[in-house]
Amino acid sequence: xxxxxxxxxxxxxxxxxxxxxxxxxxxxxxxxxxxxxxxxxxxxxxxxxxxxxxxxxxxxxxxxxxxxxxxxxxxxxxxxxxxxxxxxxxxxxxxxxxxxxxxxxxxxxxxxxxxxxxxxxxxxxxxxxxxxxxxxxxxxxxxxxxxxxxxxxxxxxxxxxxxxxxxxxxxxxxxxxxxxxxxxxxxxxxxxxxxxxxxxxxxxxxxxxxxxxxxxxxxxxxxxxxxxxxxxxxxxxxxxxxxxxxxxxxxxxxxxxxxxxxxxxxxxxxxxxxxxxxxxxxxxxxxxxxxxxxxxxxxxxxxxxxxxxxxxxxxxxxxxxxxxxxxxxxxxxxxxxxxxxxxxxxxxxxxxx
Length: 353
Hints:
alpha/beta
């Protein structure tokens, strides 16, 4: 960028550019066809700070840590992880807020048992919905889950801006931001509005197979390009954990035209008689192909931390459906301990307290 005659002109600007600090930036006839036109037109004139960013900074001044939850691909359990992470942090006596900016498909209201509840206006601004978990309170803000939202980028960006500048979160230790899959308008907006207030970083959620990891690599590249630290990658649905007694057992049919025979009762009867101790075991099996090394290998290749694995757990799925913490379920001991280890590593390695 060249500076001359007291006006800043981008190197690739059109001839007769009025300068990026001019009130005519992006609006004059000379701006037509310039690659910088949209950016100049939307920038605040004369170098004054964007009032929206100032308002967001004021709101975020009471929030210590801000964490983005990202996924390159849909269906990897990102929202489930965000919800359970919030439950876990609240259970550790932290003040937690959870913001869902997946405008077109919010899952958080369902996963926290907030269906039918709405935010309301107060003299301090919009008030998030409060969730009581044991003796701990979390604050949640999300679009209505049943709304038929088919919005273009600018309108979604405008709603995210409202979420950040008009919501009164109060004193928070953590604000967890659940985002839609990919790297779209919502991601650009949340980074633009929060970056000046200090984003601690992003946690990227994936599943073990290559079709998911391909998209995660793009997500890591996005974080590096916009200057967001990758706090780590979580490999979700890393195998299936299920009690032996909960499995259904089938006998293979002799021909393809026949249905497999259900022999569950016979198998369980034999186990109860011959080896009852086996009924108390939990079986672990692979669901996705992880022969390529999974998320751990990808993290080494991309130079980002690997936080750990969380198995696919039927009890975890039930907790999400019921809008409850799976830390409250004794049956979730495998997935709960896995998530606890991930959170402890996150807090320790990043000195968050």
